[in-house]
Amino acid sequence: MISSLATLESQIQAEDLHDAASVEAFRIKYLGRKNGLLTDLFSQIGKIAPEERKAYGAAVNTLKQLVEARLTAAQAFVEAAQKQAVAQAIDLTLPGRMQPVGGLHPIRQTMEEIKRIFLSFGFGVAEGPEIEEDWYNFSALNFPPDHPARDMQDTFFVEAPNNENGGVVLRTHTSPVQVRTMQNTQPPIRIIAPGRVYRNETITYKSYCLFHQVEGLYVDEQVTFADLKQVLRMFAEAAFGVGVKMRFRPSFFPFTEPSAEVDIWWQNEDGSGRWLEILGCGMVDPNVLENCGIDSEKYTGYAFGMGVERIAMLRHGITDIRVLYENDLRFLEQF
Ligand code: DAH
């Protein structure tokens, strides 16, 4: 009898008590009022020989204490585990944690919009270097050697001009990409060239030492000023809305003849309005075509160049160009 109690003891020790259900099953198995193993042992005490009764009772009691000790420990364990589970549970009603997502800078947004419009007209995208030879930036574009735009005041020089060439500059406009494209491709040519340009200007609310332009170039047989007017009208309607008022003003650029500047009418909410210049354009000067190895008897072309900052500022009501370059998050987060 006593030896079977010893087996029972190791059985009790070995019970796996890992959750509320197994703890309860354990309690019922050993201490349940009906058929509990220890309950039964206690009820059998009358059948034990009187001289063994004391030892038997003591042994069963020890087992009972063991069961109770295991129960207490297991219950504490299960309770703690439950508390922890509650504490760690995901509360689906809590607001989510904001993950900051970067946005596109207003200049980039405007540039992408301009690109999208011209790509839909069938233009391709061309690129050129920001550090440019004087020849591409000026000479090939028909700037006379003493043209004021070459002045140290406007141009950032990377290498000073010398006797052999005009030096190396930070490009002052995207027009040199026209030259590079025409040198490498025969017509028909239909490209835009978006990019950064640099000018050594005093920084104020309306001018900055660096800004962005989108250049356009179309060269083919029988390209006329009417084609230029049409593509720019289509652009203005796509960018500023159908029916936008625009005008072509005669102007001058060394690389186009005739040349024009385009204004759009900007209507304020209070009914007032004003003309705002958005780009320069013209028919590519035959000298430029020849400088780039294109037969100016056979081909004609138009070109245009627009300032991206100016258009971005118009669209967003920004009145100081410098905020576009300060990277103040309070400004950038509005886009
Ligand atoms: N390159 C000129 C500028 O920076 C803009 C321009 C005017 C570009 C007329 C052109 C053009 O292609 O035809 O002010």
Highlighted features:
alpha+beta, BirA Bifunctional Protein, domain 2, 2 domains, seven-stranded mixed beta sheet, three-stranded antiparallel beta sheet, 21% strand
Fold topology:
Elements (H helix, E strand, L loop, with lengths): L1 H13 L5 H12 L5 H7 L6 H39 L17 H15 L3 E2 L5 E3 H4 L19 E3 L8 E3 L5 H9 L4 E10 L11 E11 L4 H16 L5 E8 L2 E12 L5 E12 L1 H6 L8 E8 H9 L12 H4 L3
Parallel strand pairs: 1-5
Antiparallel strand pairs: 2-4, 3-4, 5-6, 6-10, 7-8, 8-9, 9-10
Helix pairs in contact: 1-4, 2-4, 5-10
This protein binds 3,4-dihydroxyphenylalanine.
Structural overview:
Helix content is 40%, strand content 21%. With 335 residues, it is an alpha+beta fold. It folds into 2 domains: 2-89; 106-332, Bira Bifunctional Protein, Domain 2 (BirA Bifunctional Protein, domain 2). The strands form 2 sheets. Strands 1-5-6-10-9-8-7 form a 7-stranded mixed beta sheet, sandwiched between helices. A hairpin with a 2-residue loop joins strand 7 (246-253) and strand 8 (256-267). Helix 1 (2-14) runs parallel beside helix 4 (50-88) and helix 5 (106-120) packs across helix 10. 3,4-dihydroxyphenylalanine (DAH) binds next to strand 9 and strand 10. The site of 3,4-dihydroxyphenylalanine has 11 residues, from strand 9 and strand 10.
